[in-house]
Amino acid sequence: GTSMTEPVVIAIDGPSGAGKGAVTQHLAQRTGFQVLDSGALYRLTGFAARLDGLELSDAPSVAAVARGLNVRFVPAQSGHEPFEVMLRGVDVTDSIRTDQAGVDASTVAALPMVRAALGDRQQAFRQAPGLIADGRDMGTVVFKDALVKIFLTASAEIRAERRYNQLKNKDMDVSLAALLESIQARDARDSNRAVAPLKPAEDAVVIDSSGMPLEAVHEAIWAVVSKVVT
Ligand code: DC
Known about the structure:
This protein is globular. 46% of the residues lie in helices and 16% in strands. The strands form two sheets. Strands 2-6-1-7-8 form a five-stranded parallel sheet. A three-stranded antiparallel sheet has the order 3-4-5, with no helix packed on it. 39% of the residues are buried. It is of the alpha/beta class. It binds 2'-deoxycytidine-5'-monophosphate. Residues 16, 38-39, 42-43, 102, 105-106, 109, 135-137, 186, 190 line the site of 2'-deoxycytidine-5'-monophosphate. 2'-deoxycytidine-5'-monophosphate is lined by residues 16, 38-39, 42-43, 102, 105-106, 109, 135-137, 186, 190.
């Protein structure tokens, strides 16, 4: 159908660790909308490509993995994540959240063939009563006609600290300095790639959450969303 009749989309874009995941879950609770974690699709693609023993630079093969991803998102009853992620029938919820999986995701995400392969899959999440889409290019490329576009950011130092605390809570062994370096490298790769680089859409509302408690971030975003979504 035409975009007039399609379910509305709220796009939440921004760099890694800005709090998009928490904001997305909060908005999903308040609106009852569906959720797309597009980063998870890139993480799954990198993870599955490694399982298959592929070179992550082998674009046609990695794109074939992306097209054929056998994945299910199962709403979780408990735990740190809102969804359990099943790849080829195996629970990979935690395996795709490691820092290495993030780096691999960012690497395969720079391949135009992989982005094209994941395009249709992302569109399929657009279902009634509406969609909260979390990613890097939701408002600029995948859902250009999104009703609301938020670009959520924060300083690299603050994002590294948040990620550090998240991983610590999962008993993962990490160093703050290594995470900061990794976040800066990922920002550079995501922002400088030729296809769908990380940047705010022209019509995005930019929110810098550095120094804002999560509650305040939620309220700032709800103030924007509630104006147009009831
Ligand atoms: O949001 P995340 O950290 O799970 O995303 C992992 C990587 O996937 C991120 O570094 C870049 C890539 N990505 C992308 O290129 N486009 C998206 N819409 C979402 C993620």
